[in-house]
Amino acid sequence: MKKCAYLVLLVFTLLVSCSLEDDPNNDFYLEFMPVEDIIMPEEFVHGETYSIGVSYIKPNSCYQFNNFAYDIDGHERTIAVVNTVYTGSSANCVGEPVLNTVSFDFTVTGTDTYIFKFFQGEDETGTDQYYIIEIPVVDGRSAPAGSKN
């Protein structure tokens, strides 16, 4: 019985001693960043992997690249750049806006044309805007050397 009481006391002490309040020095939020430029090929070859570059404006040093939001619907890909924005008292936001380029790898698994929708922000009514690129998938086999068309 004493062991059980000690165990309950230990659990209670751990729960009470840990603060569940947010540390104001570590405040942050995630923000979708409008895409400025995309670097990708004009066509894909089935089975190949491509590095796709995405550029966006980083307003200052409080914005740090976090990841890509990536949604798949058949051969359609919706992509947004996600930044972590630090706002706590220890955040020292310095610097001018700069163009930042990040990339992700894309492996072509299908043979149909891919449609990429890159998030470009919202219009005045709050509707999401996208830059849409269609990339066809071509046969990767090349003609034998010396052949003429």
Question: Can you tell me about this structure?
Answer:
The protein has 149 residues and is mostly beta strands. The protein has one domain (20-138): Sandwich (Immunoglobulin-like). Helices cover 11% and strands 50% of the residues. The chain is built from one helix and ten strands. It has one helix spanning 2-17; strands at residues 28-33, 35-39, 44-45, 49-58, 63-73, 76-86, 98-107, 114-122, 128-135, 137-138. Strands 1, 5, 6, 8 and 9 form a five-stranded mixed beta sheet that branches. Strand 5 and strand 6 (76-86) form a beta hairpin. This is Lipoprotein. Residues 1-22 form the signal peptide. Keywords: Signal.
Major pleated sheet: 5 strands, mixed
**Number of separate domains:** 1
Low-confidence stretches: 1-20, 143-149
Termini separation comes to: 89 Å
Q: At CATH's second level, what is the architecture?
A: Sandwich
CATH level 1 class label: Mainly Beta
Radius of gyration: 24 Å
Q: Quickly count the helices.
A: 1
Helical fraction equals 10-25%
Strand content: over 45%
CATH fold group: Immunoglobulin-like
Shape: elongated
Mean pLDDT: 84
Task: State the total count of DSSP E strands.
Answer: 10
Helical/strand content category: mainly beta
Sequence of secondary-structure elements: HEEEEEEEEEE
Protein name: Lipoprotein
Organism: Winogradskyella pulchriflava
Signal peptide: 1-22
Keywords: Signal
